[in-house]
Amino acid sequence: MNTRRLRLGSRGSRLALIQSELIAAGLRRLGHEVDIVRIVTEGDNRTDTTAIGDGIFVGALESALVAGDIDLAMHSAKDMALEERGQLVVGAYTERADPRDALVTRDGRGLGDLPQGAVVGTDSPRRQAFLLALRPDLEVRSVRGNVDTRVRRLDEGVVDALVLAAAGLDRLGLADRIALRFDPAQMPPAPAQGALAAQVRRDDKAVRALMARLDLPRVRLAVTTERGLLAHLGGGCRAPIGALAEVRDERLHLTAAAMGRGGVRHITIDDEATPEGSRRLIRSAGSELRTALPATL
């Protein structure tokens, strides 16, 4: 496409703007000017008592994209609804940051060093379930807000520790606050955690062709496998399901777990690093994990 000025939609948080700049930098390297357009989402306006629903952080961005107010939108891939809006498509999955969850404490002590009954902040049922499987004596308390707000509440003594996405902490320059990066075998991350998705209009052939130059097939395969498993199990962003897929030596490796009535069910399997191999992994993993999940999922 000819050089043009592109409007990139983003949430207005510090982390969202940093992540949008990563997408914008790729576009600028290809010779395009980029304006970042800040858009307030439903998730940005929620109160401490408002539950997180699927798509709460992406709906306003998608509406602006459909309306033609922006040319593309940047999302944290894990926040996106599992079913795409018909007019929209993910044009690129770019370089993925550390997908793991991280423990943050005031004094750097690890999970095993937290005192009996320590209060750990997280608003994720998945993190709560896997954390309590490791340390059932801990008290888990809902702590909401952006990463900076949550870390401030930790430092103020509201909680003794936090569990957050390592990717957000790294991108915000807060890696030195991480006391522990959880082994995915103990706490599989949210499907697509750490990945960025650049969404475009399906009929905008020029922008789709441009974003294809920034797309990383190995990241796309891993992320779509993880999200495909979540969809296969009928879960959403609040489901107690974790999954991490990685491409290594032409093989697609999947570590996944679900918290059910009988405790945690873990699996680790692999297949060919192809779309068909991904579909086989989803079916196989889904079959193994289904028995662990509550009937309501």
List keywords for this structure.
297 residues, alpha/beta, 5-stranded mixed sheet, 26% strand, globular
In helices, the fraction of residues equals 25-40%
Rg over C-alpha atoms, rounded to the nearest angstrom: 19 Å
Spatial gap, N to C terminus: 44 Å
Number of strands: 13
Classify the secondary structure makeup into a structural class: alpha/beta
Strand content: 25-35%
Strands ordered across the widest β-sheet: 2-1-3-10-4
Largest sheet: 5 strands, mixed
pLDDT averaged residue by residue: 91
- What sequence of helices (H) and strands (E) makes up the elements? EHEHHEEEEHEHEHEEHHEEEH
- The geometry reads as globular
- What's the number of helices? 9
Q: Low-confidence spans: pLDDT under 50, at least 5 residues?
A: 45-51
